[in-house]
Fold each of these.
Amino acid sequence: MPKSPRLKSKSPAEFFAEHQNIAGFDNPGKSLYTTVREFVENSLDAAEIIGVLPEINLTIEEIKKEELESLRGYKARKRKDLSLYESSSGSSANKRRKTNKGGAAKEDEADESRQQKSRKTTSSSSSFSKTETKGGKTAKRGTKRGSNVSIFRITCTDNGAGMPHDKIPRMLGVVLSSTKYGVKQTRGKFGLGAKMALVWAKKSTGMPVEVESAREGQRISRCKLDIDIYKNEPRVLLHERQSNPEGWRGTKISVVIEGNWKNYRKKILSYMRQLAVITPYASFAFSFRAPEKQRCVELQFDRRAEKCPPLPTEVKHHPSSVNNLIVESLINHARGGTTLVSLLTRQLSCISKPHALRLIEELGPSFDKDAHVHELSKRQIQQLTSLLRDAKFKAPDGKCLSPAGEYNIRLGIMKELNPDVVATFQDKASVHEGHPFVVEAAVSLGGNLAKPGLNFFRYANRIPLLFEEGSDIVAQIATKKIRWGGYKIKATDKVGVFVSIVSTKIPFKGTSKEYIGDDNGPLHKSVKKALSQCCVQLKKELTKKHAAKDQAERKKALKKYIPDVGRALIQAMKAISREGGNAAFGDDPMHPDIAMPEGFRKIGNRLLAQQKAGEINEKVICAKLTMHVERIDKALALEFAEEQGRSSKKTESLFIGLKDVDRPCKYTKALPHPGFSFKLLAG
């Protein structure tokens, strides 16, 4: 008789150690990227929470195998049975390498291949969509680890608030412990990031995490800890305090993990640059150190702004966003003696006391406004939840949110991309499933890093999103809903599309929190509106530039024919002088019946005399024509400005000085100016 299956349970740490892809630790390359991301974002939070401008230093150091074994406390042993290992030489090994070329990186970039498929679907709908292709055959991996996988020490130092000495072990060694739980805009929600880096270090290298931290005016806390994934508890190896003579404040965290720098180098550097765009008030120093000097990377992202955005505030649940679990949690955490009216008005937002009484009356006679919430039955809780979700309430405002701001976004884009022109727009707060959100957008043209076509820069709660680009709401709207040609933007232009969404709950799709789905709801409308408004601003700028370009081309075309015209005029004047005159010039006109008035003939005779004397030549005529073209160009601009003014409103005369209204005045010729017509009194 088969044995009955045993019922087992797992701790949160054990579960996420087995399903690490949920937290973004899909493979060595992605794990390296996610560790960098979590450390940097925690440092930003630590600095912003005390209102200081962040200064963050990030170092990724490649470690040789000998150094890792020294850190572990043992030396490498010489291999005895070589048949246990894969041969590093020989024709069979070389053949296997050729067959497997690119396959080792396949697992590290599986998520990117999914992104490419979504891009292909998007690119067929618009010539603006951005496509990427990467080589790599789908051959089986011939080795246990990818050829590009190495060991790295990641160290992140900040000037933030620091961590309390007694809480360091639990803050880093207990999975699903976080200070960010609640209805609030935060960079992280799950309480996984730094803990998962420790779990990944335990799996890949077995090395503990090392922390140095100091709060304002306190000693430095040093902590070295591991994690017991089966109990979800920290295993403290060292926890002590040291003197702090220099008064340092901040946190330095270091971890040794397995990673893939070669395949994820571009992602990590792109993340740092995009983070510098959305946080121009922060200073980032990035360093990658390798045994070979030519592989080392040093980057500095300087601060451009001197003020942080205001901190987001925690708010209460909106009635339309609750469910049975939230209502039960509010009831369980309510103090003894809390009435139903008190629960609705104090634990939920947008409900006044008269509104709460109307809701209780709607629930029926089985509900009493003075009844204690702990006495409610499960059926009554379900009935209350249904009413809250169906009833109409005032929408939550966006005052609790902290968007980057148009000023900071513009500064960041100008600092990192240096575009030719950029337009920004921030939409007013809207609501999605009971949670407020704000959409900020920017569209830039040109720049050092942009490529021809659309270049997407996506942010969620001021965090760059680098994966699953084709499935994201920004790419879907930009490629399918925005008619770029109507805004005078060409498919070959370098277009930067920046969209930042902040909310108390970002509607991510998938467990990895890498993209936001398009549901054609209020979020869709807000993103489309923000991008359209940016395009309208760009269209005005492009129209002005095109007009100036047309004017320059017209002037260039006129100047092109000036030498030929000057030459022709001189030849004509010489011919007239030889023939003795014509209908306009000379004392003896050839056709008296159409002869010009005497005044014009005198002017013509004077010009002919000057030409004979050499005072008028081809060079002089060309100079006069050039001056005339310049004057006519300004006159056309003035005429256009005056016409625009007349079409919009009636022009008025403005006299500077005293004018005798009873005496008629004569004026000189109007002086040309693009903005107004200026005349002087004559005589």
Amino acid sequence: MVEKRESMLSELDYTKAQLVFFYIIVLLSLDVLNPVKIFLHVFPAIAPWHIASLAIGCMAYTFIMNLRPLIYFSTKVFFHSILSIFFNDVQVVGRENIPKYGPVIFTANHANQFMDGLMIMCTCQRTISYLVAEKSWYRPVIGHLAWAMGGVPVKRAQDSAMKGAGSITVATESADDDVIHVVGKGTKFSTELKVGDKIRFPKSALGIKVASIENDEAMCLKVEDGVLDAIATQPFPDDHVTFDILPRIDQKDVFKNVLEKLASGGTIGIFPEGGSHDRTDLLPLKVGVALIAYSELEKDGINVPIVPVGLNYFRAHRFRGKATVEFGSPTYIEPGTLKDYQKGGADKRRVCNSLLTRIENSMRSVIVSVPDYDTMQVIHAARRLYREDGITQTAEERQDMGRRFAEGYKRMLLSVNGEPPKEWLDLQSRLLSYQKELTALGIRDYQVVGLDYEEAELGDGQSKGETVLHRMNIVGHITHLLFIGMLAALPAMLLNLPVGLASRIYSNRKRKAALAASKVKVKGYDVMLSERVLCSIVLVPTLWVTYAALLFFFTNLDGPALAVCVTSFPLFSYWSIMAAESGMVDVKDLRPYVMKLIPSARRRLTALPATRKALRKDLRKMIRLIGPTLGELYYGKQLDWQKITLETRKMTSSTELENKKDE
């Protein structure tokens, strides 16, 4: 994992800790330098247990007085080890954007359930308290960890959702701009609903606020952002649909705790989408983060910086995946809007929605957001093909190029009103086909470059020496793989395999349950890694205790030998993980050679380099053709991504408005 110790301690603090540690070792090793021994020698009336008792009392007092910071630090160290096991690479971009002092609100996309909070916690030097769903707060393990991290429980309306009686439709003859008239059939609006509650349509995550209730089968809904779009997805007015009721939640106590923490210089972490998901774009943000920021400005006069955090995962649901954590430039409230906020009503909603829009733009500036998974595959394939072979990009460069492609794709789509030319569609189809072919053959894009190089090296003009070196490289991979396999087989089978299989089965069941209960998840991959980690946290020590009991009752090992065996379990477990990963690198490198033994696969592998060359040529040709029309996205060196994403949003809104006028 790339993330180093600087996220836990500064470099100077780490050096001091090392010096103090070695100094203590020297004092304990030599009695003539041991200050305690010298003191006891000078004052023989004082017994050693006197000093020991005093020291224990001081330690206990210090521990109790600093209990919360110590627990947080210990939890952070623990989760650092968890991330180093479950992630192969974690890179951080933009840490300089985090204010070193004073209150901060961190707003992050929610793409990997509980892992998101841990990822930010372990890559940020500030102590963060998260707003945690009350549903998660009372879960075993998760709730305890949330408490250790100083979390604040929040009751969510969707966690208390219930099915409404009967079915509803929208009365389209209504011409009111502020409310939507709803007609029920077999409904009980008067008893089941109150003004201020929300309802939710099938396959929609948006809660729509109840403005008024006329009787059991007639009510009005408030027109707010996204409401008309949600209604457009339903078969109104011809059909009736079922609906969910989301009761209004009083969050006064939550706001009080949050504001007290911010007023004392603390930091708050919020996932304003309201829940985790595995979509490729942000969900609509909840207004709570804007209300918190305005409330703190009104109550204590503090304009809290709102720092966006982009959590970008690669193979997020798989073991030993990769992640990039990006901290963006802070967003601040415009002080002049506080008066409008204090007026309440429509003015308050307007300034809160304006701030929420700015927060959303800042969050988009630290992620790569696209409409769907196919587009994401196209963007990733295009980025890999466009860059020069053999050049390793930094995390910042990779993020920048990915966003250029994503934002450029959106703008090109807008420029042709969602109907791209045939050449564009053909290229997109070829990119997807190329990516699917790589997946089917089980190889990566960089290996295709190697296949091309290999064909050149092993051609008619190849020397005998080059052939020998090439074959020695293959033999080296096989030898290394066998050696690693022999060393790692036993600890992996005993310590890791049982936990790995159990956690995979458990996480897949949880994924299916979460997918069935969610309105926004696509495949439910956002819960898999989190559930696997939680399962492992429970099963790993259980397995170690079981092995320790077996060694104690069924072997003749004495106490010291047993202690050595048990304390070696973590070391062997971690070592086998690292060894297995090293072996997997050999397996991936050898896979093209193994696949060449299969005639059909050999023909497909042989064709890949030419396919890749043609794709790269056509992709660069199209970028040279279209790129200049994108302005600074194509020519700019250092881009203001908040400005870019805002411009794209405005272009999208303008296009949608024009399309509605045409209709």
Amino acid sequence: QDKKKNQKSYLLKMTRFLTLSGVLALVFLTAQSHSYYLPGVEQKLYAPNDALTVHASKLSSDTTQIPYEYFSLNYCHPEHDMNRYSEENYGMALSGIVLERSAYLLSFSERDKCQYLCPKKNKKGDIELFKWYIERKYRVNFIMDNMPAIEYDQVKSRALQKGIPVGHHTTAGYHVMNHYGIRVRYHKESAVDPLDDDDNLNPEFRYSVIGLYIIALPVHYGIEKSREEVLETCTKLFSDQFLPSEVSQYLNTENLDKEMHYTYHVTYIPTDITWKERWAEYLQSDEDQGYIHWLSILNSCMVVIFLTGIVAHILSRTLNRDIATYNSVPTDEEFEDQSGWKQLQGDVFRPPRRSMLLSALVGNGAHLLAMAMITVILAGVGVLSPARRGAMLTSIIYMFVLTSNVAGFVSARFYKMMNGPKWFKTTILTALGYTGVLFGVFFLLNFVLYLEGSSGNVSFVNLLTLLCLWFLVSTPFTFLGSLLGYKRQQIENPCKINKIPRPVPQQKWYLRSKFTIFAGGLLPFGSIFIELYFIMSSMWGAKLYYMFGLLFLVVVIMIFTCAEISIVICYFQLCKEDYRWWWRSFLTAGATGVYLFGYSVLYFFFSWETTRLSSTLLFFGYMSLASITLFVITGTVGFVATYIFVRQIYQLVKFD
């Protein structure tokens, strides 16, 4: 006993030390984070002569998913030294987003006329690099006043997608987009009529940027042309009277080994859309997408209603009848014929095998669920808006760290309830198990990006900061939660455990674990798979996902579905006198993560156009992490719901 007391005293002191160091590290990192700026928080107003700087974040492709720096191609540099901006927040740092100032410098006072950027003569290596980027459909991601540039189709008069193509490939050869028709939508502040004539700009007025649209064109200006000749040709082409059919004859470029001139012209379009509403047009979905979103909600609700009806029938009729029968005084014949879930009172709470692993998984699941719900709620109320680039990832990281005590507390409570003696090892497994897999895969994928020379690889300093958050903040918080959980009184189950385990009868095929786990995960996945398509398109495509309110509703529906399907399968299992429900309840709902990985495989083969090994590793690496995370969350929901159900029904029965 003295040895145990000394061990507990030592562990208590160590936990306090780790917690104190974690708090100090968190304070330090929070102080450092004040240097990061969350874009989109403050409105920026421009005078007529103020410069509108266009930044380039990266070159990206839906085909390869490997980003590169903007100036990896032979583009025009700014007149002064290239100003490479540091990451604006920690989420952008982990995403590998670095803003670079491009050569495009706009002003409200200079409009509707061609501007000459620079001449560029490409070497053989530059030509091959341009071809490589064009073949893989790379796009330039421009940003102005925190608004991403959208490719604009002049013929159809509508926006296409985020990013501007590097070029395109036809039978005539490769064509680089060397002319940009830039359209800046703006709102005049402190004006009576924001749509009045702005030909004579009033220096007293201030303007806010509402949107940035770019028409990208490949234009051949000829060989050995002077700056004045190029501007004269550009002015003729892109005057207000030009027609698309007249421009098309100038769009046939020659080989890239000749000198290429870069030009642009800017058009400013007034709008009555205010600065606070400027993201609405970017995120506006068409009617078909809105219909599909609501169809997803309706589909999920039907699944929940179906399962709720089954659970209600079990609770209101079947279960009440069973309890009434079990609580009545049986006759001799009834006593001999007794069977069902009451006969398991001495084994139903028998601790399962690998109780330490199960407790750690449940603790991690509760931790992830708390983090996910807080993040989705913040996004749903608009705190994590698309204007705050990197804010979503930053919020996820900090919420994960700050809620780590939930993992330790929940795992400790369940492991103590299972009479587990090795609480210290359980806490270590909770703190380092899931998180270790998460960071291990992330570091491996970051190494792949490093080998590819991608701008998306995370720097050593940021990786070190991530490790500090893990070891100095998250781990001590997990130990603190575990200590609080073990200090509380042990959860007492309503039934005592027999010394000798009861033999489990032979089960029919549809009640065996393989089939129930396979069937159980299908319904929760069915409640989210339609919305999952839009999430996948946002992760691996150029689309923006913004319907966080609907996402929150879908997550809630999925949670109810996991809980109900686990309860239903557990009840049928107990009726057949199979008391091994602990792991089965976790795996039944957790199979949703397995279905997610299967869905990602189908998405890869039918929606992706890549044969690169590095891109394949990135896709399956990140989708594996997403599947494992969903497996842990849904498994925890199913397990906790089933435990509450089993505990409640055995409390209602009288035992001798």
Amino acid sequence: EGPKIPCRRRIRRTTGQSMATRRGNVINVIAAVAVRGGAFAFISSIPKGGGLRSRLFSTSKSVAAVAMAPSTPSVAHFIDSTNAQYEVLHKNFELQFWGTKMALAGESYSTEKLTASKNAMEAFLADEEKLSLTRKHLAETHEDDSNFKTLKMFERTFGCYIMQSEEAQTYRNDCTKIEGQLEAARNKLELGASINGEFVQMSSVGLRNKVRVDPDETVRRACYEGLGKIGDFITSRGFVDLVKTRNKLAKSLGFIDFYDYKVTNAEGFGKVRLFEILDKLEKGTRPIMENARKELARQKGDGALDPWNTSFMMAGDITRRMDPYFPFSNAVYQWGRSFDAMNIKYRGASMDLDLLDRKNKYSNGFCHWPQPAWKKPDGTWQPSVTHFTSLADPAAIGSGYTALNTLMHEAGHAAHFANIEQPSPLFSQERAPTSVAYAELQSMFLDALVSDADWMAKYARNENDEAIPWDLIEDKIKATHPFEVFGLRAMLAVPYFEKALYELPDDQVTADKIQSLAIEIETKIQGGASPRPLLSVPHILSDEASCYYHGYVLAEMAVHQTREFFFQRDGYIADNGSVGPTLRDSYWKCGNSEMFLDLVENLTGKPLSGDAWVSELEETTEDVLKGEKAKYDAKLAECAAQGDASTIDLDMRIRLVDGDEVLADTLSDGSFEKSCEKFKSYIQERFGK
């Protein structure tokens, strides 16, 4: 789950085959392919209902005996076999990732199996022979040949994972082991706060929500201190060794440090270039941040700058007043309506939504794809399979608003990856060389709509279907707009912290130094202690998300620039039926075959900059109110004229799950609307909300 930054300008029936049906189609792959680290048994001719998941976890017994020819394979054969092999390894890892992060029952999932599946996938991607064959075929393939593009992607991808020495491979394996142990321990950490003399167990998301909305300062402070325990825990459970080992890996490969290694692989440019961009934004918004802190203290008193007070003082009361207009039980339905109105389709995909918080569940929302979407050599379409999670507590104030933000965000990721139409699954996987900023742009553009007055006029409705009143939106704008820069600065703090962290000399990487460095960066970038302590940000732990947060900053720059484009071209975004096709054709279909900076410039006609973002931050509250009121009134009139909503069709099968329990399924329920009603009844019965 990415950061939620307020941004003003900022399923008819679901169809598609079930996961079991699509997985049940015969999959013919090359068996017993040798990869570094051991042979991996691939699956051949899996029948319908054949239990693909259990078969995919087999790494010891070959189901087919297809030997690779000793001679150099043809280009087509090489591409087809590489695609098939990667697809199975990718599924293996992602199914383990989901099972362990969601704490699913049974013996199929474990940290050891997750580590083994990740090592197998990365060993495949780091096979030097494959890179050598790729380059041999490239030298013999003309640029106009349809295979050339795929071979170039293979070359980019393999180049991101090749470990140029046994030493580097050893460091990579050590990182994976330490990380797995640390995350397993972190998932079992019992978090909470002492409230009225009793310890109340809460997840990190629950603690953060209390800090934002609880009217009792002693409760807010206790929850803030509860978040602080995460830093104490991780720095004593392996994070120190993980930082050191990550840096050893990166330096053994010739990079400045681990941050430089990660950003170069993901974005195509190094750490130095990245921070040239970020430094300009940091310096340009520092005076806005300093003035905003002074204004908050003037309005609310110096205590408003205490980290457990800042968020509440800006909008805690507003969040409570808005809560009835964002009932959690309606969140899935309103997300579906909104995406359908923008003509966003999922091309026959399947999605598992695990939205509710529970014990031992991974402490951050995410969206992953055990089955990437791609176009096969015979022209058939392989739809995506998506796993999507958040940590909602429907009984909590503000949970519905947060749920809608999360749904719009993560379902934005899902829409993006469901619409990548390229000749290999390597174009549609979320790891390097897929740009972090490119991936986050899609989700953040769509979650920004939740703060728009015209969007709220239609979708922010109470249980009596009454629209949120304008005076409440007006109060929200007055309470938050002067301080929106705090969100920008909070985003900047994470990459600046990780930059400083991986620049520490090895002998200075200690638990005490890491904790003091976090406080130092919070003070430098945010002006004081952060409401969300830097060491509680889950991204810094996992390999996929570490040195990643800069992507949110670059993406937010692109969000404002893209929104500016739509406003200038169409005049609006909410319910604009051209939004989905435009995003599909300009941003989504290409996958990682195009560079992020080029995509933004090609659509908007301008190089990426923070100008549109800064311009909004500098806009007066009075001007914002004037523009938003006009949009709100126009949307209310439009809703009155349109009458009842049409049937929702996202072209996707959706299962709403809670761990191992299936709560609703559009395939068996018959429609998106019926599944939403079923989910709503479950939530109201269980939580009374």
